Amino acid sequence: xxxxxxxxASAFQKKNQTDRDVKDRNRRxxxxxxxxxxxxxxxxxxxxxxAAAKPDAKGGPKHPGxxxxxxxxxxxxxxxxxxxxxxxxxEQPSEPQRPVRVHAGEKPAERVPVILETAGTDDYxxxxxxxxxxxxxxxPYRIVRPEAQALWPRSLPAHVWDRxxxxxxxxxxxxxxxxxxxxxxxxGETWPMRLxxxxxxxxxxxxxxxxxxxxxxxxxxxxxxxxxxxxRPLKVLNLFGYTGVASLVAAGAGAExxxxxxxxxxxxxxxxxxxxxxxxxxxxxxxxxxAMKFILxxxxxxxxxxxxxxxxxxxxxxxxGEVWQLFEGLPLMLDICREILSxxxxxxxxxxxxxxxSFYSIHELVRETMRGRGGLVESGExxxxxxxxxxxxxxxxxxxxxxxxxxx
Length: 408
Ligand SMILES: C[S@@+](CC[C@H](N)C(=O)[O-])C[C@H]1O[C@@H](n2cnc3c(N)ncnc32)[C@H](O)[C@@H]1O
Known about the structure:
Elements: E1 2-3, H1 19-29, H2 48-53, E2 109-118, E3 124-130, E4 133-138, E5 141-146, H3 158-162, E6 166-170, E7 178-181, E8 190-195, E9 198-203, H4 217-230, E10 235-239, H5 245-252, E11 256-261, H6 264-276, E12 284-288, H7 291-301, E13 307-310, E14 315-317, E15 323-325, H8 326-340, E16 347-352, E17 356-357, H9 359-369, E18 376-385, E19 397-407
Parallel strand pairs: 2-18, 5-6, 10-11, 10-13, 11-12, 13-16
Antiparallel strand pairs: 1-17, 3-4, 4-5, 6-7, 8-9, 14-15, 16-19, 18-19
Helix pairs in contact: 7-8
Bound molecules: S-adenosylmethionine (SAM).
Residues 28-29, 32, 34, 213, 216, 240-243, 245-246, 260-263, 266, 290-291, 311, 313, 316-318, 322, 324 line the site of S-adenosylmethionine.
């Protein structure tokens, strides 16, 4: 049993939520917080082309990286470091749901454990880790953040760590407040980055996240190769899509993408990422909606997808306060995904983080869910390998999340 923190594990207390629960639940989402009433269920966000032509009320991009493409002024992150207490939102059931079906037939073949490793690239690498922190390179910046999994000592000397451009400090309690500190010059909120031929903004968000989860590169490069090899425009559904990097990678490789996230803010960031890469014409539907509600509707409509990516948080909220709890919702979510996967040449990629579970939990669930559909289920962990200062010295592996991947 492991509890993997991708930056925000905290004790999850059931039912009877207290303010502390709400804070925990909202923490993942403010990096993309599920909107709390700002968006309506089923809202489609303006297509990016239109959005680019008509900046939103907030004035469009507010980051130094945008300067080359937009005259918008850098915005200090100082204001973001002071948080207001998250608002309580009345709990709402997600939608009239259906029971989870029990499937007959053989289980898919299996391959376990599979460790998918993200090594460094030009714009991202894990330089070092240890003593409860990690030192990473994100584009031009070296960033220090808490990392509960890094139980070992640091490899590199203190003066290397001390030269970081940004340090996230917070209570050792994962649930606690934190802030970004810039030991040298103050930095703007965002900066341009490029991974897998995709441009996007790194971003100092509240609660230690930086707008991208690099361990996902292992899934994204696998997906990109699959799309490119298919010879036709595959349909990709990106559930809990956050800042849209996976959606942009998929669309850039030739897929038609449907991106779903409950957070209007995260979708706004995703559209900024799309504009940064001049990808306005890429076929991406940006949908601000509760993921469960969306797939239930897609099932009723008979929609089909060739690849589904799902990276659900332990707890989340839809735009109308719909409650997502991984341990309660995952069996039905996967069962619906089964129904909306194409009958041939399909793939489902599930990631789970910040949960107390073994990869076997999701592995066996995916195998039961995909009974009778053949194929292979591979499950294990996503890890990032330390690379040293220039990425050339392989070091220790830092585990970030569990995954399970079914391919037909
Ligand atoms: C960790 S992020 C996913 C990261 C993404 N896979 C990536 O690597 O870029 C989790 C996302 O789930 C979204 N979310 C939370 N609850 C949701 C819900 N009920 N329906 C849809 N999205 C939700 C949050 O807004 C957040 O953007």
